[in-house]
Amino acid sequence: MTIAKQPDRSRSRRRLLQSAGILGAMAATFPAWADPFVDLDLPGGPDRRELTTAFPQKGPMILQRTRPPLLETPREVFDRGVFTPNDQFFVRWHWAVIPTEVDVAKFKLTVRGHVNQVLSLSLAELLAMPRVELVAVNQCSGNSRGLFQPRVSGGQWENGAMGNARWTGFRLRDLLDRAGVKAGAVAVRFNGLDEPVVDGAPDFMKSLDIDHARSGEVMLAYLMNGEQLPLLNGFPLRLIVPGWYSTYWVKMLNDIEVLDAPDENYWMKTAYRIPDTPQASVKPGETGFKTVPINRMVPRSFFTNVRDATTVKPGAAVPLRGIAFGGDCGVSEVELSTNSGESWQKTALGKDEGSYSFRQWSTTVTAPRTGTLALQLRCTNTKGEVQPAEPNWNGGGFMRNVIERVQLKIA
Ligand SMILES: Nc1nc2c(c(=O)[nH]1)N[C@H]1C(S)=C(S)[C@@H](COP(=O)(O)O)O[C@H]1N2
Ligand SMILES: [Mo]
Fold first, then answer.
1. I need a labelling partner for 5 at 20 to 30 A (CA). Which of 111, 125, 199, 406 fits?
2. Ligand 1, CB within 6 Å, residue ranges
3. What number is the average pLDDT over the span 248-268?
4. What is the rounded average pLDDT of the residues 385-406?
5. Are 355 and 253 found together in one domain?
6. What is the 3-state secondary structure (H, E, C) of the chain?
């Protein structure tokens, strides 16, 4: 169902969140058969989390925080396929003042600043822009932060602050061309409908360099997996920055400003900065390094059908599978090691949905008769970058990356 094809008034004002919505009490509405808690595998804990179904348009989600909502995708969702369903796609907001409904008849996207012509476009006008579609992974900069050692503050995610979807919308370049970017433009800043809770706190805004903004790949999406975006994922419109961490993927996007000077706003200058070092890695306690705004993603891979607690039979053939992505390019190979990284064997890769998508991998190994089955997994992307053997570390808990390891029990 598309937004534009709803001219009748009763549907034009969509009540997307009910009164008990984001700000309401968390009702315990679990079906009797459901386990209302999830155990994350975080070093040293605490790793018990409530599984909640209390958020609008969302199925069972791991509750990381209520206000603003931080909801993590349960790990079994990633085992079902490379597309993350909208109702279990992770949610992350910085400020709790999020509109609980958006009037699609009144919604306007503004393009202003260093342009020839200021634009104020309705959703109907935006839907008439040349349409593009792309599959891309949306991954929080702090995905897997809870696995950092030593631990760092911030949302204590396991690996579920990521998701993959087919995004439908239009090119940012086409929109900027329509406004006419003036010579001397250096950056484009994006702002959404959400607001800070207290006066004077910095409104959430992110920018891209003008060349990146005009690359033709950055898009504005009004459909996610063929449906309207859930409100908590940015209805009615969000930015898609393929291959870059999702801090740039501004939700409920309603304001675009072309800048003729670098963006000095808090969310670019102070927050979301990483050490300008290989893998954004420093030693705990280290100071004096240069920082840069977080940017492109790096390759990662995950087991989805086994974890440390999994038990297999002695000598059994053990089917293994999971997902991987290349970061800001495609997956070249996903390899498994059963001998602590001495040798690696290629796994079979599933259907290629595009360079920015999750890719499924699978293989089978034979369990030993006794002891444990220790497995390592690594992804190499099409640029030749491979996951490192040692985990990176930085104080922000950003860009977690390391060869994945699980140890299965034999019994
Ligand atoms: N308007 C707005 N957009 C935003 C944010 C926000 O706080 N406000 N958070 C960003 C961050 S840090 C992340 S991880 C993603 C999360 O996207 P999702 O909630 O759709 O999974 O939204 C990004 N876009
Ligand atoms: Mo994020």
1. 111
2. 89-94, 138, 140, 192, 194, 204, 233-234, 246-247, 249-252
3. 97
4. 98
5. no
6. CCCCCCCCHHHHEECCCCCCCCCCCCCCCCCCCCCCEEECCCCCCCCEEEEECCCCCCCCEEEEECCCCEEECCHHHHHCCCCCCHHHCCEECCCCECCCCEECCCCEEEEEECECCCEEEEHHHHHCCCEEEEEEEEECCCCCHHHCCCCCCCCCCCCCCEEEEEEEEEEHHHHHHHHCECCCCCEEEEEECCECCCCCCCCCEEEEEHHHHCCCCCEEEEEECCEECCHHHCCCCEEECCCECHHHCCCCEEEEEEECCCCCCHHHHCCCEEECCHHHCCCCCCCCCCEEECCECCCEEEECCCCCCCEECCCCEEEEEEEEECCCCCEEEEEEECCCCCCCEECEECCCCCCCCCEEEEEEEECCCCCEEEEEEEEEECCCCECCCCCCCCCCCCCCCCCEEEEEEEC
The pLDDT of residue 35: 59
Domain, as residue range, for 388? 300-410
* Structural domain count of the chain: 2
Whether residue 51 is found in the same domain as residue 90: yes
Q: What is the pTM of this model?
A: 0.92
Q: Taking residues 3-23, what's their average pLDDT? A: 34
Domain presence at residue 281:
no
Q: Does the pLDDT at position 25 exceed 90? A: no
Atom index in ligand 1 nearest the CA of residue 194 equals: 1
